[in-house]
Amino acid sequence: MIVAELKFWANYRNWGATRIAALEQHLRRMIIYPVDAKLIDKWAQIMVQAEKTGRHMDSKDAWIASTALVLELSLVTHNRKHFEGIADLQIISHQSTEGT
User: What's phi and psi for 91, nearest 5 deg?
Assistant: First the structure.
């Protein structure tokens, strides 16, 4: 999902060929995890939890959170509010939690 968002942003902002090539080179160094049944189940659980608690959860954010949970990774974000309230999710962010 993160790779898809990066490519969307590059296309939406009309990055030139040189900048897109640099992004592609950077992405080749990353591990991209495939979607599997365990990840799909975790995504569904997160979406249901959000709906039942009356909280809107963007499906893209749920994919990111479910990936972190399935792989037992901390989630690093500048959008802490998007992920708060997800059970067992470890969030790393410089955003303050005061007043939220």
Answer: -110, 130
Task: Give, for 76, the enclosing helix (H) or strand (E).
Answer: strand 75-76
> Could you state, in order of their start, the residue ranges of all structural domains in the chain?
1-32, 37-92
Q: What is the pLDDT of residues 53-74, one digit of tens each?
A: 999 999 999 999 999 999 999 9
| Residues contacting residue 55 through CB under 8 Å, at least 6 positions apart | 85
**C-alpha distances in angstroms, 64 versus 24, 58, 76?**
20, 10, 10
pLDDT at 99: 47
Alpha carbons 47 and 87: distance in angstroms, whole number? 12
DSSP 8-state secondary structure symbol assigned to residue 78: S
Domain 37-92 class in CATH: alpha beta
Q: Decide if 93 contacts 78 (C-beta within 8 A).
A: yes
> Which tokens go with 69?
């949970």
Contacts of 69 (CB under 8 A, 6+ apart): 42, 46, 86, 88, 89
Whether 47 and 62 have beta carbons less than 8 Å apart is answered as yes
